[in-house]
Design a protein that fits this description.
Distance between the termini: 68 Å
Strand content: 15-25%
Number of helices: 8
Number of strands: 17
Radius of gyration: 21 Å
Helix content: 25-40%
Largest sheet: 8 strands, mixed
C-alpha cells in the first residue's frame, strides 16, 4: 500500500511527459525527425513546410472573420486563366502564399491555378532551388456559405536554370514531388502532409499559434462505404461512370457524401475509406481538376497512406503534363474502391 502514491505519481508523470512531447511536436520539428537529419536539405524542407503553415494560419484567420469584414466574401468580377469566376478569397489566399514565400529565400517560383504563368521571385532565384505549386482555395464555391474549404500544395525541386521562364522542368510526372499535402479549414484548421515517408496530420492550436502533431502514419482503409461525387453531372458522364453509380445505388452498404470542397471530401475518405470521383464528361473528357496543383499532390499523399489515384486508365502519378494547367479526371481513395470504379471503366462491370 505504501507504494501506491509512487505508482500514481509515476503514471501521472508518464502521461504528462507524453502530453508535453506531443505539444512540442510542431510541423517543422516533425519534418526534421522524419528525415532523421539536420542537413541543409532537411532544414530547407522544414523551413518550406513552416512557410506553408504560416500561409494556412493567415488564410484561416481571414476566414474566421469573413462575415465581420468588408471585401472578403463574394466575387471580384474577374475570370481566371481557367475561365472561372474569381472569388475575393481566391485572390487573398493566392497573394498570401506569394507574400509568405517572398521572404523564404528558398523558392524561386510559385505556380498556381489562379495565375496563367509562374510567379518568379528574382531575389530568391540565385539560391532558391524549389518551386511551390498550389491551389490557394479549393472549393471556393463554399466560401460565402460558411462551409469547409481547403488549400492544396506540392513542393518540387527546380531542374536547370529556367532562363527562358517557361518552367518546362515542371512538365514531369508526379513522382518528382518532394512533398505534398493540404490544409483543411473546418471546425479546426488541419494540415496533412507527406514527404514520401507516410502521411501525418496536424491541428492548429490557436493558443500556441502552432500546428501540433495529432496522428502519424495514417493508413487509409482498403475499402470504405463512402462514395463522393457530384451526381448532378450524371448525364454528362460516359456510360461506364453512370453504370458504376447505378451499381452503388443498388448495392447495400454505400453512402453518398459530397461537400463541393475536394479537400474536405478526400480527408473524410483518408480517415474512413471509400472513393472520390471527379470524372471527365463527354464534352470534356480531360475533366476539370488541374494535374500539377490538385490531382498529383493528392495522389502522392493518398498513395503514401496506402490508397490509389488514377484517371481510370493511368496512375495519376505517371501522367506527364504537356502544359502547366493540364487537367485530368480523378478517381482516388481506398485501393479496393478505386479498383471497382476502374473495372467499370475498363471492362464495363
Amino acid at each position: 500500500m505504501a507504494k501506491a502514491p509512487d505508482s500514481i505519481e509515476s503514471s501521472i508523470n508518464e502521461i504528462t511527459d507524453k502530453s508535453l512531447d506531443r505539444d512540442c511536436t510542431t510541423l517543422s520539428r516533425h519534418v526534421l525527425q522524419q528525415l532523421q537529419s539536420f542537413s541543409p536539405d532537411a532544414q530547407d524542407l522544414s523551413a518550406l513546410m513552416n512557410r506553408i503553415a504560416l500561409a494556412g494560419k493567415l488564410v484561416a484567420r481571414r476566414m474566421s472573420r469573413a462575415g465581420l469584414m468588408e471585401g472578403v466574401l463574394g466575387f471580384t468580377g474577374e475570370v481566371n486563366v481557367q475561365g472561372e469566376s474569381v472569388k475575393k478569397m481566391d485572390v487573398y489566399a493566392n497573394d498570401v502564399f506569394i507574400s509568405v514565400f517572398k521572404q523564404s529565400g528558398l523558392v524561386c517560383r510559385l505556380a498556381s491555378e489562379e495565375m496563367e504563368k509562374p510567379y518568379y521571385i528574382p531575389e530568391n532565384c540565385p539560391i532558391g532551388r524549389y518551386t511551390l505549386l498550389y491551389d490557394p482555395i479549393d472549393g471556393s464555391s463554399n466560401t460565402d456559405n460558411n462551409l469547409s474549404l481547403g488549400s492544396i500544395f506540392a513542393i518540387r525541386q527546380q531542374e536547370g536554370t529556367d532562363s527562358d521562364r517557361k518552367a518546362t522542368d515542371l512538365l514531369t510526372n508526379g513522382r518528382k514531388q518532394l512533398a505534398a499535402g493540404y490544409i483543411l479549414y473546418g471546425p479546426s484548421t488541419m494540415l496533412v502532409y507527406t514527404i514520401g515517408k507516410g502521411v501525418h496530420s496536424f491541428v492548429l492550436d490557436p493558443s500556441l499559434g502552432e500546428f501540433i502533431l495529432t496522428e502519424e502514419n495514417i493508413r487509409i482503409p482498403k475499402h470504405g462505404s463512402v462514395y463522393s461525387v457530384n451526381e448532378g453531372n450524371f448525364w454528362q458522364w460516359e456510360e461506364s461512370i453512370r453504370e458504376y453509380i447505378r451499381y452503388v445505388h443498388r448495392t447495400e452498404g454505400y453512402s453518398a457524401r459530397y461537400s463541393g470542397a475536394m479537400v474536405s471530401d478526400i480527408h473524410r475518405i483518408l480517415v474512413q475509406g471509400g472513393v472520390f470521383l471527379y470524372p471527365g464528361t463527354i464534352q470534356n473528357p480531360e475533366g476539370k481538376l488541374r494535374l500539377l496543383y490538385e490531382t498529383a499532390p493528392l495522389a502522392f499523399l493518398i498513395e503514401q497512406a496506402g490508397g490509389r489515384a488514377t484517371t481510370g486508365l493511368v496512375n495519376i502519378l505517371d501522367v506527364v503534363p504537356k502544359k502547366l494547367h493540364q487537367r485530368t479526371p480523378l478517381i482516388i481513395g481506398s485501393k479496393e474502391d478505386v479498383a471497382k470504379v476502374e473495372s467499370f471503366i475498363q471492362n464495363g462491370h
